[in-house]
């Protein structure tokens, strides 16, 4: 693949802009400036890297990312009332069409997946695809057995005809609820907690499938999701 195409596919702007970056000697391969936009490079596996203005980038046919979403960010490119989660990412990702894989409310924190692989996004957001997601909620009132049983047995949400049940619901302490759900209905966890007779004061997503939020990923930080992470996502 020629260098112009490499930069273009990785979100560095229009083909003209990519050519200009290369021509201005801002791109290096293997530690050396490459100012030839037509220079050809063999890309095999996940090992090809380049730098733009000194920042190293891996070449990825598709981007799979995870973000530790902080409070106060909307999962939209065109947010209404808060900042966009995309403002936490390098602009190259929005440029190459990365989108959120499912959404978290602006006040929900934790594990958020993003990708530009349309098939992957579709598969993971399809209601048919049942992927367990583990949420940890801080509740206003103390948790009791009746609430936990109601969540596990199923609660009827306003406007729904069938009850929604948690795969699992347990109290980590008096006001901390860990709960897994398969679906991703609008405000689902908060509405389920309310329907069980309590109130959600804070919500954090800890796990999707078998993929756990890395302990090292600070709020607001992102990282590439590697093949092992993708496997973990599909397991569990
Ligand atoms: N359930 C909610 O209520 N909010 C979220 O952000 C995610 C799940």
- What's the tally of helices? 7
> What's the overall geometry?
elongated
How many separate domains make up the residues?
3
Helical coverage, percent range: 10-25%
Count of DSSP strands: 15
Query: Ends: how far apart?
Result: 37 Å
Q: Return residue spans where pLDDT drops below 50 for at least 5 consecutive residues.
A: none
In CATH, the architecture of the largest domain is: 2-Layer Sandwich
Query: How do the SSEs run, as a string of H and E?
Result: HHEEEEEEEHEEHEHEEHEEEH
Q: In percent, how much strand structure appears in the residues? A: 25-35%
Q: What's the CATH topology name of the largest domain?
A: Alpha-Beta Plaits
**Tell me, what is the CATH class of the largest domain?**
Alpha Beta
Mean pLDDT: 95
For the biggest sheet, the summary is: 9 strands, mixed
- Class computed from helices, strands and strand pairing: alpha+beta
Protein architecture, described:
The protein contains seven helices and 15 strands. With 236 residues, it is an alpha+beta fold. The chain has three domains: 56 residues, Roll (Structural Genomics Hypothetical 15.5 Kd Protein In mrcA-pckA Intergenic Region, Chain A), CATH 3.10.290; 91 residues, Alpha-Beta Plaits (2-Layer Sandwich); 76 residues, Alpha-L RNA-binding motif (Alpha-Beta Plaits). The strands form three sheets. Strands 5, 8, 9, 10, 11, 12, 13, 14 and 15 form a nine-stranded mixed sheet that branches. It has a four-stranded antiparallel sheet with strand order 2-1-3-4, with no helix packed on it. Helix 1 crosses helix 2. The longest helix has 9 residues. The structure holds uracil. The site of uracil (URA) has 8 residues, from helix 6. Uracil binds next to helix 6.
């Amino acid at each position: 693949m020629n260098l112009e195409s490499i930069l273009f596919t990785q979100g560095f702007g229009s083909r003209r802009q990519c050519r200009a970056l290369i021509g201005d000697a801002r791109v290096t391969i293997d530690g050396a400036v490459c100012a030839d936009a037509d220079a050809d490079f063999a890309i095999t596996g996940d090992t090809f890297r380049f730098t733009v203005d000194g920042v190293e980038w891996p070449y990825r046919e598709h981007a799979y990312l995870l973000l530790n979403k902080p409070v106060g960010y909307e999962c939209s490119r065109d947010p209404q009332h808060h900042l966009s989660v995309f403002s936490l990412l390098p602009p190259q990702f929005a440029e190459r069409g990365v989108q959120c894989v499912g959404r978290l409310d602006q006040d929900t924190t934790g594990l958020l997946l993003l990708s530009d692989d349309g098939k992957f996004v579709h598969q993971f957001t399809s209601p048919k695809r049942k992927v367990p997601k583990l949420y940890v909620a801080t509740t206003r009132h103390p948790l009791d057995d009746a609430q936990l049983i109601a969540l596990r047995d199923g609660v009827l949400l306003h406007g729904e005809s069938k009850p929604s049940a948690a795969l699992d619901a347990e109290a980590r302490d008096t006001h901390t609820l860990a709960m897994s759900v398969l679906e991703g209905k609008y405000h689902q966890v908060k509405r389920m907690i309310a329907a069980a007779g309590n109130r959600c004061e804070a919500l954090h997503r800890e796990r999707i499938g078998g993929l756990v939020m890395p302990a090292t990923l600070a709020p607001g930080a992102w990282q590439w999701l590697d093949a092992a992470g993708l496997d973990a996502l599909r397991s569990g």
